[in-house]
Amino acid sequence: MKPSLVLKMGQQLTMTPQLQQAIRLLQLSTLDLQQEIQEALESNPMLERQEEGEDFDQSEAAGEGDESSGSGTMETTFKETSVATNEMADESEWSERIPSDSELPVDTAWEDIYQTSASSLPSNDDDEWDFTTRTSAGESLQTHLLWQLNLAPMSDLDRLIALAIIDGIDTDGYLQESLEDIHASLDPELEVDLDEVEVVLRRVQQFEPAGVAARNLRECLLIQLAQLPATLPLLGEAKRLVGDYLDLLGSRDYAQLMRRMKIKEDELKPIIELIQTLHPRPGSQIESGEAEYVVPDVIVRKHNERWLVELNQEAVPRLRVNPQYAGFVKRADSSADNTYMRNQLQEARWFIKSLQSRNETLMKVATQIVEHQRGFLEYGEEAMKPLVLHDIAEAVGMHESTISRVTTQKFMHTPRGIYELKYFFSSHVSTAEGGECSSTAIRAIIKKLVAAENAKKPLSDSKIAGLLESQGIQVARRTVAKYRESLGIAPSSERKRLL
Length: 499
What we know:
By secondary structure, the protein is an alpha+beta fold.
């Protein structure tokens, strides 16, 4: 068989640059979109923000035609703007009109209006003022401990040991390395004994937050109890319980605990309440990351018994094509400058049109979600209906992948709070009457049942499944356990409490 050239005709779908840009903008979150718009404004001179109170024709700003393209399909006419230029005065005359600083009247001092860094500091007699709470933004636990170490009176050798100890503390405040490992990591020439490492550890354990640098939960709680006032009632019993019977407390074996400590239930309850005031993860009190802000894309509100869906206009700035720069583009000019301006003008129109397409798609999807989940807006999570991407895709006439892009990292502000659009989608469970119940509604019912349970006899997963079945919702015990874990609810054995 000899090789030969064959000419075939066929059709193939190709994504144009405009479509690729529209899809990319569609899947961006609000914060990422704001950054994308800012980059477009800085790189494209044809784009500009619409200031408050300015009116312009959207069809002009996002017109599909190009005056310089030569196709003649559509032309966009921009209004000519006349720029009035005033003759500036001579530099000498202008400088004479400006008064000097000494001639300007002064009726107040700067410190009377604005606080300086020195004046903003509190006085020395303010005992309640805390420097770290006022100045530490996003301070880590390691930084907080090092700051206290620099203020502690220690020898150079002890400070070096303390640094090795602080390096081994995790974000929860526990010392993850053993004293032997810390001792082995030190320079042998220093001739440090293991007892010295333990002594320095005791000093680090006195740092804030209370309980830091503990090697286990029992030691962490004992350190916190030791720092409480000695006159505190039941302090000795709490130390005894933590030191000897912490395992029984963790397993909620209150009967064995009362038998071992030889106390009654009314005496055990205040001891446990005192222990519950302690922090099992002291490092979490200091560790704080950067704040994450959620900007809603859609706002839902009720007006005259109707639910209205609106775009958050403050989240995304409105853009337009600069009419003055666009007027400089000449149709018949093929110079480099004119070609550059023509390309920038076309890119600006594409960008604005992609933003409009994103807003229209987001409004369609959000409107259908609100229409479908009106029961949630009226009555809460228990009235949430089952919803999948296919339902919204059929309603708006789009592909499921498009709906997935629209609902990812997009948030809706409702009277019940701010929710991601994906929150309104959930699977369904069949009911005894042949209907359907969403998994979100089942979670809400489980949460409600657990909140109303008897603390002495908490509901097991099988009991919760039986209560749901009595309401017509057929859910297996394993499904109940899965939903319970997703809500962060502990098993029944760990929810047992003393009344």
